[in-house]
Amino acid sequence: MTNTLHRIGDAESFKDDYIVFAIPTKVRKDPDAVTKLHRFLELAMEFKPVNLGDARHGGAIRPNKHLGPTAHWNRDNKPDFKAVIKGVNVATTCAAVFDNLDAAERFVKRVKEEDLGISVNVSTSITGAETCCEYANLSRHSVGYSLGFEGKTDKIPDTDTALLSTMCGHGMISHSLAKKMICFVKENRRTPEQAAAVLTRFCSCGIFNPSRAKRILEHARTGQK
Fold first, then answer.
1. CA-CA distance, 43 to 156, in Å (whole number)?
2. Residue 198 and residue 196: Cα distance in Å, rounded?
3. Is residue 148 part of a domain?
């Protein structure tokens, strides 16, 4: 079970969304856990991720307490992957986010070859995860599947808003902020890239996928499904 299971969408909507987690054991403390997590993230960089995440400090695009809200549109939006790696100082959950199957497949295979001795799982569509496992010559151990929302769903936001806000499994991207970014893009006040970067900063563990967000925002602008 991972917080990425909160993501909304059918299998096709995850064609550019692959999250690979590394999770050290909590039952028996591993003195080399931090070193292994550093190695996991360093390996991920070889395959050009769109985000790296440290559950304690966030992703590769982070907020800054010294900047005001207007700085969102003027600041450098380039992901700082080295800062994520450097910031991992305790055993925690780390993640690498990719926007294409080829990179995800090759990374999973590379992690298997490295044999770090930590738990690794893949979060995407079931088909995508199975394809990654097959490429690495792995048999799927188990599967966690989200059943979606049940009960009174009349207050659930529209699909585009939900697609964006649920990419932060900790609920740190509000529906209102996602709606605002959609409106900004529709009104040509901001580009999909700018709006996606703003949303990325609010994800506290770094599993937000800016590439998928840009696609969703662009589709919302054009009315494409």
1. 38
2. 5
3. no
**E-assigned strands of 150-201?**
none
Tally of domains in the chain: 1
Q: Tens of pLDDT along 51-109? A: 999 999 999 988 777 777 677 677 778 899 999 999 999 999 999 999 999 999 999 99
Would you say 224 and 215 are in contact if contact means Cβ atoms under 8 Å apart? no
Cα dihedral 108, 109, 112, 113, rounded to 10, equals -140
pTM of full prediction above 0.70: yes
What is d(CA 194, CA 73) in angstroms, rounded to the nearest whole number?
7
Residues 6+ apart with CB under 8 A from 188: none
Task: Show the tokens assigned to 218.
Answer: 């662009």
Full residue range of the structural domain in which residue 157 is found: 3-143+153-222
Within a domain: 9: yes
Give the pair of three-digit tokens for residue 195. Answer: 């709006």
